[in-house]
Design a protein that fits this description.
By secondary structure, the protein is α/β, with parallel strands linked by helices. It has 16 helices and 19 strands. Bound molecules: alpha-D-glucopyranose.
């Protein structure tokens, strides 16, 4: 008899990203905090979320809003105390949910004691914990590598007369992961949180962790366009995705495997064929190398269809897929594809095979909020002001209610709210069965109750035009998903077989419960989830 496969929580579940500065402020300082998150757990549970990933909450000078960490095993007072964290973990677990933390191993803050020691003298025992190099003979940087946040990736240290490497801000020096002491120190950090009972990590910029030892120059990018980040002038061939990275990731995984059922998610922006290598040999690398295709691809059926199929085909045997619709670094889905199409995107995310990760507020259709120049806070925006790269617009406070500041804070919110928050918020949408929030919730609940949708097989269905079509199937049930990625009406003409079934969820609920068969007409921006008769 065939062995029934056992699915783990991070395979069948749904992950929700909380950007803690912007979720819920409990103490009135205008910045979200851990107590605030606790207050809102029932909402997440109501929605059907099974795991929460919280962006960094550690002590940090906040040069990059928490991604510059000065103590890996503490809590920033802005967010609370360690006892608040312990309470959060307990409350999450009491609701039968999981808590995933952000691990930022590539770089520390320049205020981290490790770096303060490292920069204190050339013969300090921690000198080799970071990437220090001599200037070229003419005093120039060791090579041409660029910082993701603009300018050179090398910073000159006057006192010890060497350069150090920083892939991001100069306040975020990169650790030297070839040094076993660094590895041990970070593995201990992981154990510190895993011992507390944290259910996993989202590992920041995993593909950056090793760099070419010979420091070879990166080649210029022939496709560079001036509107893009200055970082894109070069192809980061020698500063990212280096040989040896998979051994390192496998070592991190071994630490995870000292514990039961923890998850390691890798933040990796690479093409599919490189991305899937991060599952590691025999799937002993990252459990989920984040798949950002829905965030980065042009929004048209042909492109997305071919990438879904390429991804499905490229996954290693036993490698579990995943999909992301947005995060704190990218424009929000509603701002990329429009309000109506955002519902189609939600249906796509929640019906594809693989763990979905949602970004807070997307379930309301929150839009990017234009931030006036004198209020911009994100260093990426400030460093390249003419390029429109600020991430602030996608990081604005969660819109809870029509009350002052959308119920986010009694104080002055750290980023402004949009004018429409009185209409677009949780309270209003909870009372409206036609809202985006209810649409998300119904998709989530259906996914959680139907094996076909959560763990079932995926098969593309051949069609032409602007529709994305596929089935999800498990024993006893098959769903057909039809998504019109354009604003115009179109007809689904199945090319190989006739489908008959009942619409279970539709972007326009009026279509639900109707029986369809043969050619199926779709409105613009319409998505249909159909339970097939001949399952
Ligand atoms: C990751 C984070 C981003 C941060 C960067 C540097 O890409 O998601 O927010 O700025 O790493 O840590």
């Amino acid at each position: 008899m065939e062995q029934k496969q056992h699915y783990l929580w991070w395979q069948s579940g749904i992950i929700y990203q909380i950007y803690p500065r912007s979720f819920q402020d409990a103490d009135g300082d205008g910045v979200g905090d851990l107590k605030g998150i606790i207050q809102r757990l029932d909402y997440l549970k109501w929605m059907g979320i099974t795991a929460i990933w919280v962006s960094p909450i550690y002590p940090s000078p906040m040069a990059d809003f928490g991604y510059d960490i000065s103590d890996y095993c503490g809590i920033h007072p802005l967010f609370g105390q360690m006892e608040d964290f312990d309470a959060l973990l307990k409350e999450v677990h009491q609701r039968d949910m999981k808590l995933i933390l952000d691990l930022v191993p590539n770089h520390t803050s320049n205020q981290h004691p490790w770096f303060l020691e490292s920069r204190s003298s050339r013969d300090n025992p921690k000198r080799d914990w970071y990437l220090w190099h001599d200037a070229k003979e003419d005093g120039a940087e060791p090579n041409n590598w660029l910082s993701v946040f603009g300018g050179s990736a090398w910073e000159w240290d006057q006192q010890t007369e060497q350069y150090y490497y920083h892939a991001f801000l100069k306040e975020q020096p990169d650790l030297n992961w070839r040094n076993p002491e660094v590895q041990r120190a970070m593995f201990d950090v992981m154990r510190f949180w895993l011992d507390k009972g944290v259910d996993g990590f989202r590992v920041d910029v995993m593909w950056h962790m090793l760099k070419d030892e010979e420091l070879r120059d990166n080649p210029t990018n022939p496709d560079y366009e001036a509107s893009k980040s200055t970082y894109d002038q070069l192809i980061p061939a020698y500063s990212t995705d280096q040989p040896g990275i998979h051994d390192l990731v496998a070592k991190m995984r071994q630490v995870m495997d000292e514990y039961d059922e923890r998850v390691m998610i890798g933040e990796i922006y690479l093409p599919i064929h490189r991305l899937v290598t991060y599952y590691g040999q025999d799937n002993k690398g990252a459990h989920l190398p984040f798949n950002f295709m829905l965030v980065t691809l042009d929004w048209n059926a042909r492109t997305i269809r071919s990438h879904i199929d390429e991804y499905e085909g490229a996954l290693p045997a036993g490698g579990w897929p995943n999909w992301v619709i947005g995060n704190h670094d990218q424009p929000r889905i509603t701002s990329r594809v429009g309000n109506a199409q955002a519902k189609v995107a939600a249906m796509l995310l929640l019906t594809l095979r693989g763990t979905p990760t949602l970004y807070y507020g997307d379930e309301l259709g929150m839009r990017d909020v234009p931030i006036p120049p004198d209020e911009v806070q994100d260093p990426q925006g400030l460093n390249m002001p003419d390029k429109d790269l600020s991430r602030d617009p996608a990081r604005t406070p969660m819109q809870w209610s029509p009350a002052k500041n959308a119920g986010f804070t009694d104080g002055k919110p750290w980023l402004r709210l949009p004018d429409n928050y009185k209409r677009i918020n949780v309270e209003v949408q909870q009372a409206d069965n036609y809202s985006m929030l209810h649409f998300y919730r119904r998709l989530i609940k259906l996914r959680q109750s139907e094996a076909a949708l959560s763990i079932g097989d995926y098969a593309p269905v051949l069609t032409n035009g602007p529709i994305l079509t596929y089935t999800r199937k498990a024993e006893g049930s098959t769903f057909l998903i039809l998504l019109n990625l354009s604003h115009k009406p179109c007809i689904f003409r199945a090319q190989t077989e006739t489908y008959r079934g009942k619409i279970i969820i539709a972007t326009d609920p009026e279509r639900e419960e109707k029986t369809v068969s043969g050619n199926i007409a779709l409105y613009g921006d319409e998505g249909l989830l159909i339970a097939l008769d001949n399952a």
